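Sequence design from tokenized structure. All designs in this work follow the same two-part layout: the structure record, then the generated sequence. An example of the structure record is given first.
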């Protein structure tokens, strides 16, 4: 049994804490947040603000084959993780849909050229799959893609990890076996954007996202709109809640959602689903995605130290695969069903 100190109780930190404590290690986690619950004030873990799209095919358009391959590995791991958690976590793999308005068909085809396995749908097929959508949309199905409920997953990972949680604690420096003044057998750096330094050229990429309430909305699976200017997605969180996201702005501004982003996101979503006219806006949220210059993740292992960062816009898609690589490489644990 090893003593392990983890800096950061976001997605990466909680996955490590859960897997390592389950393997019998003594785990302590440090995070500046006042507690484990989300606050939606733009300051907490990016993981709470995420939509939870699990889209290896669509993300390959910008991330390439490496991101897609890690994504498929994670898609095999998520059901095993969720099956071992005591609290319920919504996880679905009913495919996702790419949509385009007729006038944007050219732009959509250029994007589709970079996406593997998209299956064109007829108008009748689309109406059968998603009856609540505006007629006349062009549509493609992305088989195997899915969705996770980030807040439920963060809550369940915290509840399932037998760790000492030190809230309100900033870890300024990390060395092998050391988090600040605290000594462990292993130190894990899972600070997301909080690890920004001259050694790790991280930057925050602002994302704005909107929660809507609409009882009986009828949407079954995540949608992405292929649009020349906005890449918006609309997804069902539960039977009465929808999520519209997300802006992607080169800024570390954590201030509230701008009028322009809100208008653009909601207008694009409404153009897909007319019934959204009656939806109620329940939350406007903002957070920063931790990104490296090449937009690829950075995983590092040396004796006594693991680091994982730069998960950018694909953290929920990539984290299980990358955490698993580091766990197996260090011989400390595994995320797989035991
Ligand atoms: C609007 C939005 C939508 C998104 N949608 C998706 C999506 O649909 N699918 C997807 O796969 N990904 C999505 N993401 C990306 C995903 O949320 C991130 O990639 C992921 O949260 C990164 O995980 P992380 O653990 O590295 O960082 P975080 O989740 O940000 O966690 C970092 C933690 O470290 C803590 N910390 C910071 N500094 C310190 C310090 N000095 N000491 C100790 N702790 C510290 C923070 O308080 C925080 O709790 C989205 C992100 C945003 C913002």
């Amino acid at each position: 049994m090893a003593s392990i100190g983890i800096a950061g109780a976001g997605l990466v930190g909680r996955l490590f804490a859960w897997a390592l404590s389950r393997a019998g290690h003594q785990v302590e986690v440090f995070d500046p947040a006042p507690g484990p619950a989300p606050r939606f004030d733009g300051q907490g873990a990016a993981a709470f603000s995420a939509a939870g799209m699990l889209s290896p095919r669509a993300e390959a358009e910008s991330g390439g084959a490496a991101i897609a391959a890690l994504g498929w590995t994670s898609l095999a791991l998520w059901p095993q993780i969720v099956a071992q958690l005591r609290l319920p976590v919504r996880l679905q793999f009913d495919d996702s849909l790419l949509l385009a308005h007729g006038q944007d068909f050219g732009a959509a085809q250029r994007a589709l050229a970079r996406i593997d396995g998209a299956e064109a749908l007829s108008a009748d097929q689309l109406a059968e799959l998603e009856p609540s959508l505006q007629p006349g949309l062009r549509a493609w199905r992305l088989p195997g893609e899915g969705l996770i409920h980030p807040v439920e997953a963060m809550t369940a990972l915290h509840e399932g990890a037998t760790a000492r949680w030190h809230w309100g604690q900033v870890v300024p420096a990390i060395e092998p076996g050391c988090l600040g003044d605290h000594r462990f057998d292993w130190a894990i750096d899972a600070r997301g954007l909080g690890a920004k330094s001259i050694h790790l050229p991280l930057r925050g990429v602002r994302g704005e996202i909107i929660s809507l309430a609409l009882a009986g909305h009828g949407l079954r699976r995540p949608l992405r709109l292929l649009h020349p200017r906005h890449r918006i997605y609309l997804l069902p969180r539960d039977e009465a809640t929808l999520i519209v996201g997300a802006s992607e702005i080169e800024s570390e501004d954590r201030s509230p959602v701008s009028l322009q982003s809100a208008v653009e996101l909601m207008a694009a979503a409404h153009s897909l689903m007319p019934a959204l006219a009656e939806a109620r806006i329940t939350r406007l949220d903002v957070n920063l995605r931790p990104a490296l210059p090449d937009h690829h993740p950075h995983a590092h292992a040396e004796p006594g130290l693991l680091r994982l960062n730069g998960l950018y816009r694909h953290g929920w898609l990539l984290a299980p695969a990358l955490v698993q690589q580091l766990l197996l490489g260090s011989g400390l644990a595994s995320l797989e069903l035991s």
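The chain is about 30% helix and 30% strand. We note this feature because it recurs in several other targets discussed in the main text.
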